[in-house]
Amino acid sequence: MRQDFPIFSAILEAPFGALGIRVEQNMVSELVYLPPRFTEKAPEDALSEQVMRQVEYYLDDPDFRFQLPLKPAGTEFQRRVWQGISSIPRGEVLTYGQIARQIRSAPRAVGQACGANWYPLVIPCHRVTAAGGLGGFAHDDDENGYHLGIKRWLLAHEGVTAYLPQSA
């Protein structure tokens, strides 16, 4: 049975589950990682269709660069963190501490700002890790949880395989 999710302008099935797309006033207002039980939803408007196309391009080519109108979001501090994250090249990671040093802050505050990211994929917070390992993702640190599985998938998609689970 197909369910309708009116809060999303579109839902795109992805290798890691699904991605909910929200647009308001001709700007992207949020991207949300969703579990696989969410079924694809056709775009409601031209911008939602453009977002879906760009996400598909990224899923085919991790070097794709998003060009989307993002609705201003977050605090001034969060935007500084997100700007630092956006400068991390594909295939590389920085630690929360490295970002914190760049913006003269603390690693825990950087982690909180990463978790508050309204535009995952576009602002690639998956490229930020802990000094001693993968770290959390989307305010989740369950080692076997859904969100850290997405982070591992995205990093591997971009050529960073150090965080893939070790096979027994």
UniProtKB/TrEMBL annotation:
- InterPro entries, sorted: MethylDNA_cys_MeTrfase_DNA-bd, MethylDNA_cys_MeTrfase_DNAb, MGMT_N_sf, WH-like_DNA-bd_sf
Q: Which Gene3D superfamilies match?
A: Winged helix-like DNA-binding domain superfamily/Winged helix DNA-binding domain
State the UniProt keywords alphabetically: DNA damage, Methyltransferase, Transferase
Q: Which GO terms describe its molecular function?
A: methylated-DNA-[protein]-cysteine S-methyltransferase activity
Which BP terms from GO are recorded? DNA repair; methylation
Q: Which SUPFAM superfamilies match?
A: Methylated DNA-protein cysteine methyltransferase domain, Methylated DNA-protein cysteine methyltransferase, C-terminal domain
Q: Where is the Methylated-DNA-[protein]-cysteine S-methyltransferase DNA binding domain?
A: 76-160
- Its protein name is Methylated-DNA--[protein]-cysteine S-methyltransferase
